[in-house]
Design a protein that fits this description.
By secondary structure, the chain is mostly helical. Helix content is about 70%, strand content about 0%. The protein has one domain: Heme Oxygenase, Chain A (Up-down Bundle), CATH 1.20.910. It starts with a helix and ends with a helix. It binds fe (ii) ion.
Amino acid sequence: MSLENSLSPLATPSFPVAMPHGEWDRQGFWNFADAAKEATEALAAQKMKALEDMPVESLREFCTQYRFFTIEYISDLALLLAKLPFGGLRSLLSQILSEELGEGDASRAHPEIYDRFLASIGVPRERLDRGLPENRRILGELTQELWEREPAFGVGLRGMGGECLCQTYLSVMFEHLREHPFMRENADRIDWEFWTIHAGEEDIVHGELTRAAIDRYIQDEPSALPELAQGYERSITAWNRFWQNIFDACATQRGAVS
Ligand SMILES: [Fe+2]
């Protein structure tokens, strides 16, 4: 099956699970969040399979596009921190932000680590800044909404979305990425550190800690639930669209690249 054909059923990604109507309660929220996460996992698995036999130049382009998410995630997380009340969630997210920025060592900042991975698979430095305009727009809109809306919306958008959901996509991406013949042949020369951090135990623990902290946040502020759910829904829709745009761009490129 061609890449284009394998993607056609996903051409218009939408939110995979209907949001319940009426009053929210804590358990109802987590049921909704779990169902949405499961549906996203299935969608990610279906999409990322195409990575295994993508032309190597498209694969480089695909991986390059993800870097813009890691960069914007950091400033959005800082913005969210500025808006949150004191408490466990704010402290935990500040720790995650510090790790994202290398805990005082700029060479350990996650975008830097990711760029070392890109260099090791043959992405030239001068191509690092070529983000898809459509995805830059999506990321810009998320930042704007984070700025304008309630902190709870931001928790759903960047707290849950970034930490719990991003991990899901990255694990699936890594699973298929490393099966690509180029990756297998060059495994010894590739800098895998970003993936060791993000597709392994460390990020799973982050996801679990974030979930527990958000649960306490909801208990302290039950009125935040509708905004939280809306932020999470927005995050999943944007995230699915973000990846779909990358797949579309790489599929278009396919014919042009030898
Ligand atoms: Fe990271």
